[in-house]
Design a protein that fits this description.
Elements: H1 3-22, H2 27-41, H3 48-58, H4 64-70, E1 75-77, E2 83-85, H5 88-98, H6 101-113, H7 128-138, H8 140-145, H9 153-161, H10 171-183, H11 187-200, H12 205-221, H13 227-245, H14 255-269, H15 273-293, H16 297-312, H17 318-321, H18 323-337
Antiparallel strand pairs: 1-2
Helix pairs in contact: 1-5, 2-3, 2-5, 2-6, 3-6, 6-9, 10-11, 10-12, 11-12, 12-13, 12-14, 13-14, 14-15, 14-16, 15-16
């Protein structure tokens, strides 16, 4: 099919979706579509009890049954009676291009509010599909895709801010909240939030790794190589070296890679070249040994960067240049496959 024809048909398809959603009788009906739609992106749908409970918090005039009739053919019942939207592509277009951001954030908030009645950790006290939905709604990659422009950050941030009390004992909530803050460049608040994740779930290796990574970023951002920068680096390096020493061979986390780009990068930025070369020598040996046992692109990139630095003194500053590229990649993956 010629590219021009594909483009025309694609535009017609999105126009039909836009007109259908916009043509629903009221905001209540559109809210029901968004509730079912967001659960469709999670690939599990939403239970009848939860969608009704969330809808009743969002609606202003139309009963749930009336809204269900108004959205018939768009909102459907899927596996196990869970509500879904007609098609994932339909939902993506509506969320990304049509629906009001404040409304989308409010829908996510009310869907999450249906989980506040459960004991912590929540995902262990609900059924499998509900646990997947809960994790999806909080997932920092999903929440980040809702931010269409800088002015939308505060609106989306409401999703996390709304549950600092209700989910205060849930480590997964704080972990995703902290990672979202990192994504939007709020490094110092992320330190506080990730610390809460560890307090709620001390044995979570992902949270301790994430906190150490953010500590290195915070040290990098310091204007001076002062006591605070040294403390942040020292704490992070200690944590990551301990994690590296007990590395689970089934894990896809590599503390030594975080150390390579975070620690060396921060030292070079603060012109601590002797300390950087000493650490780089140690890390290069470890990366080489790991690379012989497991082929991985991240390990190879770390090895290449360390070898270049030790051989030429040149350091490619990934902390300064990689953020936007990484997020763009995440957004592309979300659009293609959905957040898992």
């Amino acid at each position: 099919m010629p590219a021009s024809k594909e483009t025309t048909e694609g535009e017609q398809f999105t126009k039909v979706i836009t007109n259908e959603f916009s043509g629903l009788p009221d905001d209540d009906s559109r809210a029901l579509v968004l509730l079912a739609g967001i659960a469709t992106l999670a690939r599990v749908g939403i239970s009848p009890g939860a969608i009704r409970e969330a809808y009743e918090k969002l609606s202003t005039r139309r009963s749930f049954d009336e809204a269900a009739r108004a959205t018939e053919g768009i909102v459907l019942k899927g596996q196990g009676g869970r509500f879904i939207a007609r098609h994932e592509l339909y939902v993506r277009h509506i969320i990304e291009n049509v629906a009001d951001l404040r409304t989308v954030a409010s829908v996510v908030i009310e869907a999450l509010r249906t989980f506040t009645k459960y004991r912590h950790p929540i995902y262990k006290n609900v059924d499998r599909f509900d646990g997947i939905l809960f994790r999806f709604l909080l997932n920092h990659n999903f929440v980040r895709t809702l931010v269409r422009q800088k002015t939308g950050v505060e609106e989306v941030l409401r999703i996390y801010e709304s549950f600092e009390i209700e989910f205060q004992l849930d480590g997964h909530f704080w972990l995703q909240y902290g990672q979202f803050l990192v994504e939007i460049g709020r490094i110092e608040p992320a330190l506080r939030v990730l610390q809460k994740s560890i307090e709620a779930y001390p044995d979570n290796e992902f949270a301790t790794h994430a906190l150490a990574d953010v500590q290195l970023k915070a040290a990098y951002r310091r204007s001076l190589y002062d006591a605070e920068a040294r403390t942040l680096m020292g704490d992070a390096v200690k944590t990551l070296l301990e994690q590296d020493a007990r590395l689970d061979w089934e894990s896809d986390q590599y503390p030594i890679v975080t150390l390579t780009f975070g620690h060396i990068g921060a030292l070079v930025k603060h012109k601590q070249i002797s300390a950087a070369k000493e650490a780089a020598t140690q890390y290069f040996d470890r990366v080489q040994r790991l690379g012989k046992r497991r082929h991985n692109g991240h390990l190879q990139a770390a090895q290449d960067s360390l070898l270049r630095f030790l051989s030429t003194g040149e350091w490619v500053d990934k902390l300064a240049t990689n953020g936007r590229r990484k997020q763009a990649g995440r957004n592309r993956r979300f659009r293609k496959r959905g957040v898992r």
